[in-house]
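Escalation from tier 1.

The customer reports that the assembly of two entities below gives different structure tokens on two consecutive runs. Tier 1 could not reproduce it. I'm attaching the input and our single run for tier 2 to review.
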Amino acid sequence: MMKAVILIMDGLGDRPCKTLSGMTPLQIARKQLLDRLAVEGETGLVDVISPGLPNGSDTGHLAILGYNPFDNYPGRGPFEALGAGIDLRSGDVAFRCNFATVGPDGVIVDRRAGRITSEESAALARDLSEMSLPDHPDVRIIFKPTVEHRGVLVLRGSHLSPRVADTDPHQEGARVIEPNPMDSTEEARTTSEILITFLRKASQVLANHEINRKRIGSGLPPANHLILRGAGQFRALQPIQQRFGVGCAVVAGGALYRGVCRAAGFDVMDVAGATGTYDTDLGAKVQAVMSAVKSYDLVLLHVKATDTASHDRNPARKKEMIERVSQSLGPLYELAGSGEIYIAVTGDHTTPSEIGEHRGDPVPILIWGPDVRRDCVERFDEVSCSRGGLHRIRGVDIMPIISNYLGKMEMYGE
Amino acid sequence: MMKAVILIMDGLGDRPCKTLSGMTPLQIARKQLLDRLAVEGETGLVDVISPGLPNGSDTGHLAILGYNPFDNYPGRGPFEALGAGIDLRSGDVAFRCNFATVGPDGVIVDRRAGRITSEESAALARDLSEMSLPDHPDVRIIFKPTVEHRGVLVLRGSHLSPRVADTDPHQEGARVIEPNPMDSTEEARTTSEILITFLRKASQVLANHEINRKRIGSGLPPANHLILRGAGQFRALQPIQQRFGVGCAVVAGGALYRGVCRAAGFDVMDVAGATGTYDTDLGAKVQAVMSAVKSYDLVLLHVKATDTASHDRNPARKKEMIERVSQSLGPLYELAGSGEIYIAVTGDHTTPSEIGEHRGDPVPILIWGPDVRRDCVERFDEVSCSRGGLHRIRGVDIMPIISNYLGKMEMYGE
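Tier 1 run:
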């Protein structure tokens, strides 16, 4: 039975960098194993959504999992909530949240409340989640902290709407925004009222919280406010097993990636040391993939730090991260040598590491396996892969191509 | 702040020509600068609309500006009218017109009225435009002559329709056609009545016009009839600034190109010597582009004569025109060397110059700039560019790709 592993290096695509002698990080990286996969496999370019359109990691992953984001993207909140382990139901409205420090005048002093610890935010969260709102007894409030100052808020009830304003002004020194309705529906008005009531009560709870009294006592900024962004209403996606005939698992540190995959019906593997940061334990993640591939048709392995380096405008660090990833794949390549595993490698968008922002340039892709049509490309990078046998495809083409190799695509016609 | 220049050589694509030793005009042309841009940039092929579909200059430009012509093409009349400087309003119905010579039996003797001079047609037009129609007091007639026998007619009023027949039979010796309604709507019937009344009155005015008496006296065919084609109803397009975040200007001699760009919200640059013909002042046009690029994000430079040579079935002249264009770009290339200007070069369709008609073969494209992913292509022609890093894209992809390079595309997702 054939299996597949898809490695997504976040923000992998790049442009020629002045500081790398006009090469991209992928071009200059010593990445023997990735190049070997390119030599032995087929390669190409991917417009993750469409030519020239810069996409987020959320819409990019949705496309790579085979879901047209224009039909299926609910906003980022629901993916983060799923990634945080909340079991969403259709109709739930979810938000990304920060604990923040807000002055008496409503102005944001610190969007991250001095990056409070995960332990502190867990203690604060206990007094926020499941808070009851007398005027809305049918609405359930679910708040779950994730890492440091970050968390997710879910409103569960009937007749809610995601069409309310972000309260996060995205900059310090600006006032917190009211979660006003963004259309004239009753659902948006009701949701806005619920949020206003909840956020007011939450601020009262936080202001008097023991954790914050301690922080103020130690001269630290208090986490006295929740700010919200990325509202979205969850609708179940058609499960990937049904769509492409494959049972799937994901190994990823970041909540977003776990959440998008969960929305598509993946099982989420927990790996100690998979942090979604530079210090992630790549060896442990690859081992988890090798273990999961015994039980699943397809395992997605996500590495975030290539994008982090891009946003940090550090082409050299991106190159190093690519090299580390390539080295870490050794055991998987050995296992795949049995001839029963395909390996695909690509990115979810381009983040030129001298710009530090997402751009719409295509990303390279390689597909390696026992019976792929080997092309003449010998290196895995943006320019070499432009001569590859896969040509220029779209993100939504990747899953059908892989499922086809696994013999799981249903025939159309007779 | 990054800027972009798009050079469109009309009808640029071609096929191997017997008279050019089996080469295309682009392949055989000595065009050092265009080839240099190909060496230093990325290249590919463009299906302006879709593979194999021959397109007009109007639909081709619409696609290249990023508007799907199947949703946005109003017919040619409105573009010509905009290009002639008429400020169209939504609902206006516009036609291209010729002054023609028609015999007493209604048969066309000369579709161009002996190519009357622009001065003569301007004098005739003064007695046609703003003519009042007693039965349709609410309809305004706007007629504007352009070059020689050519002009545009605009009907302004409520409840008009472009669904009326061309009166131009497109060949001499045939009878002028009645502008009959082409569907059963009241709008089409009314528009047909208005046109019949107007054209009858126009013929009376022209028959007795001093200009025509003089022409007949000199043995020249009189401009005694207006023949119409290309009916279209104007609807405003979403402005390109809003669509792609770029402020745009166009340098073009031909009315159509100025008109399509105006419809998309471009500012139109007037350049003395930009004629849209072989004798166009390329140097002046390039200087105008270099000046406009100071104030606009994107400047479109259009050259018509490559297509004229194709329709004239003159591959050698097309080759010469390509060489002249390449030479004229020197100052722009020098300016762009500052690293702040992208240059894209392509065509709006293929016109094989041994056939003399539009065909649906793709056209080559190159994009040159400080951080594009340089591919291995070293010549700018139909065959070399088929190996380029851009692969095979569509006309509507060009603007997103350029706007992406300018950092003006809005991100989709987070």
